[in-house]
User: Fold this.
Amino acid sequence: MVQKQGQNVACTFAKDAAPLSVQVISTSNNHKDEPSKSHGLCGVSSFAFRQALAASGPVVATIGSGMTSGFSAVLLPQLRASDSDLPISEDDTSWIASMAALPMALGCLAGGFSMERLGRKRTNQLLCVPFIAGWLLLAVAQNVTALLVARFLTGLAVGILGPVGLIYIGETSAPQYRGVLLAAISLAVSTGILLSHLFGALLHWRLAAALCALAPLIALILVLVSPESPAWLVAQGRPSDAQDAFRWLRGSDPEASAELQSLLHKRPDAAAAAAADEGWRSRLARPSFVKPFLLMNVFFVIQQFSGVNAVAFYTVAIFQQTLGDGVDEYLAMAVLDVARLVMSLVTCVLLRRLGRRPLALTSAAGTGLCLLLLAAFLRFRDATWAAFEWTPVALLVGYMGFVSVGLVPLPWVMTGEVFPAAVRGVGSGATSCLGFLVFFVVVKSGPAMFASMGSDGTFLLYGLVATFGGVFLYFFCPETKNRTLQEIEDAFENKTAATSTKV
Assistant:
């Protein structure tokens, strides 16, 4: 360790990190005197910036997740083209698209286990390996089998990233910044989808895949210079390391100090619970786990069956089936991608200003309305509809706007908030696992649904699910904005006054 007299910040090799990784932590012996804003190593100017730096690794990796979701929309048309150097069959089409979704559930379970055993930081590092390998294999694939393996690897990495990225950001950010940093996950997905569509529209799919490998590579570098989660360090019996990491991330203002003391005091509580023979079964039966587990599972089903990933995976095909001959489906795709990205940016702002409940209810209502109107328009259109050929695009843009401000980001945001510390890895991993299983079902069944039910019937089903979601969320969605993780856990455990709509 290198430190000079009077400095508060130094670089040290992290005990919990991979070999040769660098962790930046506070080494001040007098944390109480540390100012609320620091000018430490490498020009870091504030603790908010440090929290954003810690979150940047998972966020950039999530851009790769968005690329994984969006890539099939441009890959499949190129593979089916008459001049394709790797021709595919109709059956291959749905498998290439859905193969990325298939291992995501397995990845969630692996991620949940790994982050408890190896730590949040190291798991974020490890998932970048299959991510990079998958994209590079896709770039050089010479047959369908290689394509499927490549898609499997990228999907596995997406699954691992699902719970660990959310938990890491949730545990390294202050309550006032947690919402916007977790919402950046949704923004990153939208950015990744847009970039993959842009690469695929302008470049050969092999070069596009190679460029997509840059996202997990950059993420790996960012994770290397970030600290480990203080909550995990406490759970591992390393309170001194946890305090150093927490102080570097959050400083020592009264609010942060109170949260740190609450975090450090959880270790004796855990020891007392173990002495009382409270095992995993009883922990999983507690209200603080059961209530958020049921809530988030239903929330993920609503999210996926609102159809957002079916649209992302088959954008061009859906537009070819839905739009009239006078509308360029690639132009429409670009309009939809920009709308998704803009609304993801808006969501980051709204989560700073509004609570989870208003966004969830507004999103569900708007999503359901746009989908039901689109289904009705497609069902009853006739020869006179040519004068309104851009109406489906307008409704799809409205749909994408509404779904992007609530139904898409909030399940991921809240998964990083609502589970108790003792079983946070298990809860987030299992919930994300179900979310990705439903993801796979929606993506795999998408072509068959559009073929058998038509565009109008499929959008009608998605719209009804979103409408039901609005009713469900009205009664059961809690408000977690500006609450510490401990306050949220206590509320679900009924240790503090709470209702079904307030945590």
Q: What stands out?
A: The chain has 23 helices and two strands.
